[in-house]
């Protein structure tokens, strides 16, 4: 699991795309909603941060393997709890933007 | 609950509820965390979170390699341990952001509180520092109420408290404004039901709200 600094970097990248009602969503629904709206560059930045692999390694992976790595690592890092904590300390983002 | 056991990296530590001085220091750090989070300053949030935990333990802990969730859990446990046990109105959050005076500096909260307590009770700094959190807050609230009542009395004796109303040709008393936490919570009462004579009711087909539903 990420340390606090990296976890906050992760939230600064992904926070904007986390649905407001994340607590009521099933994990699969939650993650697919994020993947749907995440710009590719941020998607790669996040996978790089949470997997510890560099971009050239990631570019060699298939789309499905990337998506699996992305979801596994987000679950491992308890993304919903991270989002709740950041919102509690008033790390506010605007609600989900354009789809 | 005045002591809790906290596990960090397989080591167990007993942590006691803070005294007044330490609590004020922790609250200052908490404000810093919230301000840094509002500014999305990751470095300062992390530094302040570590500082909050180390200050509660009174020694430096190496928290950089701990999973984030463990750090947050420790932070939450410490906050809960040191939360005031009574619901003090003085701690209610003001909706408007208070303006920071020019003479403010880091760590002033302790000197502000200790100055008020020393001035009113004649206690020394060591004694004030060792007060319990709830005693400290309750006494500060009483001092502020006394000060406000005194100011209101002095205000009522001054000329500027009375303004002349040209319409009524009388002087009217203007109350001195109270701090936000001293306002009584107004309960909204249901309006009284009043019977109206039939001949006083409006003419025509009356559709009441209850019937239209």
TL;DR of this structure?
The complex is a heterodimer of chains A (99) and B (213). Chain A is mostly helical and 99 residues long.
Task: Describe, in plain words, how this protein is organized in 3D.
The complex is a heterodimer of chains A (99) and B (213). Chain A is mainly α. Chain A has one domain (4-88). In chain A, 64% of the residues lie in helices and 0% in strands. Chain A is globular, with a radius of gyration of 13 Å. With 213 residues, chain B is mainly α. Chain B folds into 2 domains: 1-83, no CATH class; 92-201, no CATH class. Chain B is built from 7 helices and 4 strands. Chain B has helices at residues 20-38, 42-57, 68-81, 108-121, 125-129, 133-157, 209-212; strands at 3-8, 11-16, 162-165, 170-173. In chain B, strands 1-2 form a two-stranded antiparallel sheet. In chain B, strands 3-4 form a two-stranded antiparallel ribbon. The chains are: A mainly alpha (99), B mainly alpha (213). At the A-B interface, α1 and α6 of A face α1, α2 and α3 of B.
Helix content of chain A: 55-70%
Structural category of chain B: mainly alpha
**What are the segments of chain A in which pLDDT stays under 50 over at least 5 consecutive residues?**
94-99
Order of secondary-structure elements of chain A = HHHHHH
Terminal CA distance of chain A reads 30 Å
How is this fold's topology laid out?
The complex is a heterodimer of chains A (99) and B (213).
Chain A: H1 4-14, H2 27-37, H3 40-51, H4 55-59, H5 63-76, H6 79-88
Chain B: E1 3-8, E2 11-16, H1 20-38, H2 42-57, H3 68-81, H4 108-121, H5 125-129, H6 133-157, E3 162-165, E4 170-173, H7 209-212
Antiparallel strand pairs in B: 1-2, 3-4
Helix pairs in contact in B: 1-2, 2-3, 4-6
């Amino acid at each position: 699991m990420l340390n606090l600094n990296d976890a906050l970097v992760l939230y600064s990248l992904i926070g904007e795309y986390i649905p407001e009602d994340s607590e009521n969503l099933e994990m699969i629904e939650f993650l697919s909603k994020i993947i749907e709206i995440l710009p590719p560059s941020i998607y790669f930045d996040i996978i790089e941060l949470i997997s510890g692999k560099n971009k050239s390694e990631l570019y060699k992976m298939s789309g499905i393997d990337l998506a699996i790595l992305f979801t596994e690592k987000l679950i491992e890092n308890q993304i919903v709890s991270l989002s709740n904590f950041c919102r509690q300390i008033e790390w506010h983002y605007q609600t989900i933007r354009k789809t | 609950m005045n002591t809790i056991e906290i596990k960090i990296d397989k080591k167990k530590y007993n942590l006691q509820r803070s005294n007044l001085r330490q609590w004020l220091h922790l609250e200052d750090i908490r404000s810093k965390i919230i301000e840094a989070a509002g500014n999305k300053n990751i470095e300062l949030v992390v530094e302040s979170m570590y500082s909050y935990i180390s200050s509660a333990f009174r020694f430096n802990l190496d928290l950089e390699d701990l999973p984030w969730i463990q750090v947050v859990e420790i932070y939450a446990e410490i906050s809960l341990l040191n939360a005031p046990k009574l619901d003090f109105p003085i701690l209610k959050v003001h909706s408007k952001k208070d303006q920071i005076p020019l003479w403010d500096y880091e760590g002033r909260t302790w000197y502000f509180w200790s100055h008020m307590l020393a001035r009113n009770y004649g206690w020394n700094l060591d004694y004030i520092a060792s007060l319990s959190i709830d005693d400290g807050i309750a006494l500060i609230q009483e001092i502020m109420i006394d000060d406000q009542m005194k100011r209101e009395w002095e205000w009522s004796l001054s000329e500027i408290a009375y303004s002349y109303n040209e319409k009524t040709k009388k002087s009217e008393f203007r109350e001195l404004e109270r701090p936000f936490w001293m306002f009584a919570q107004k309960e909204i009462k249901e309006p009284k039901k009043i019977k109206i004579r039939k001949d006083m009711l409006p003419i025509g087909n009356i559709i009441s709200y209850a019937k239209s539903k």
